[in-house]
Every structure is written in structure tokens, then in C-alpha cells.
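so ive been stuck on this for like two days lol. basically i have the seq below and the ligand is zinc ion, smiles is in there too. i just want the complex predicted, nothing fancy, no docking runs or whatever. if the output looks off dont worry ill sanity check it later, just need somthing to start from for the group meeting slides
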Amino acid sequence: MTETAGSMKLILLGVGAPPPTPEKCGPANAIVSGGKLYLVDAARHAATQIVKAGFSIGGVDHLFFTHFHSDHYSGFGEFFISRWIMGGKTPLRVFGPSPVEEIVKRMLHYYEYDIDLRANEGKSRDGAEIDVTVLSPGDSLEVDGIRIGVEKGTRHGNVPDILSYRFEAGGRKIVIASDGSPTEKLVPFAKNADILVMHPCLPEFINENYGGFRETAKIVAAHHASAEEIGQTATRAEVGKLVFSHVVPPLAPNEKVMEALSRHFGGTIVAGEDLMIL
Ligand SMILES: [Zn+2]
């Protein structure tokens, strides 16, 4: 499918999960509009993936977090410091649910030593600063002409603060639901979206090896959405395309995920791959 250069796109920067694997980077996405990239979650290798997608790190000025499980921000520090080193001159704008301010504060503390070394040689500190915005369900904002909706579209185990994002520009609507089972808010929030991104869990593929303990596997399964919940959400929201990524457990085969989702959604289903453009 070809799109005009100006239309908003989604790039799946990483479709993996916590276990590092050679095939998949950690869960992160990018919205591209007007030639600029807007990062959604900053998983491991997010900085490298942005470069592989053909963008300069120094030109990425916005980062939206869905929630703060480590796999969604393990690449935050690397992205932030690389952006500054690679020419980012304005404060990075970071948006997310609580405790985004605390996470940012701690991450800055971690790099303080390096920032001081470089600043003492004359590098401006401007790009090494962060402008934080705490978001709550129901918020909406506009960034560079992209309308952004924020909702608690999922329920994710014991994570109290998690956000789904809806990006609208140039007649396209892209919804990134994030981890967890759909709340009653997700169908209206994602109604008629061109793309809905969700993360299915196939509990039958979780074994005692995942995370080391059988109990961990059970907890992980309880935190995530079933294929049935995701397929039904996509059907009720009448989305154009259902994209799945960040599958739990990561060894669940894509064909099985596809098969399970297609029992509940008759539309187009896309098995997400790293660097896929939609
Ligand atoms: Zn999570």
C-alpha cells in the first residue's frame, strides 16, 4: 500500500517483549507526520530503530509513554542522551501518566555525570533538559497539527496508570491501546480508527520457563488481553486494520495469534514486525 508523503503513518519500531531476542526489539512505536517522528514508548534499542527507520535522533522532540513497565522505557535513557549528543537543541517533551515526573527525574540523575562532563567542555545543556507533561484519561492535546486523544483504554494488572493514545491527522486515525484487557472506554475511543494496535496474550504458550517461575507466568497472563477480547474490541470499534505486536509470550507463533484473533474479527489483521510501516 502506498501513501502520500504527507499522510500520517505508524512505524512499529519494536514488537518484542521483555526477553531480549535477536529478532525483535522492545515495544515501541512511532507516529510520523509532516516529516517528523513522534515516539510512543522508549523500549530497548528505540534509538537505533529510529535511525534504522531513516530519522535523525536529534530531530525527535516528543515522547509519549503508555505506562512504566520497564520494557516500555528501558531505552529511554539511551534515546534521551543520544538525542542530545546527536544535536537535539530544545528540551525533549515527554508526556505520560503518573509517575512520569519521577521516572524523568531519576533518569536525569543517572546521566547527570555525563551531562556535566560534556557541558563543561562547552556543549549547551538545552537539549539535555526535559519538559514533562502528566496526562490523565480524557485529556486531549494538539501537537504540530496532530490531534491526540488520551484514555484509559486498558486494564493492566496492578498498574494503576496506563494510557491509550489516539493520533489523528490528515484524515487518518491511529490508536495504540497498550498492554492489558480492554476497558469499556476502548471501543468508543477507537471507533472507526484506521489502525488499532493491541498486544495479545496466548496463555497456552506460557510455560514455567517464562520469567523463571510458573507463578510469574500466571501473573503475566492475568495482566494481558486475550485474543477474544482484542478481536471483539476491533469488531465493535469497526477498525480498518487490527495490528498485533508485543505478543505474550514472545514465543507464541504469529500464525496461532492470527488464527485466534480471526475467530473474533473478520477484518484485516496484521502481524507486526520491527520497522513495519503502516
Ligand atoms: Zn506492561
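The chain has a mean pLDDT of 93. The first helix runs from residue 46 to 52.
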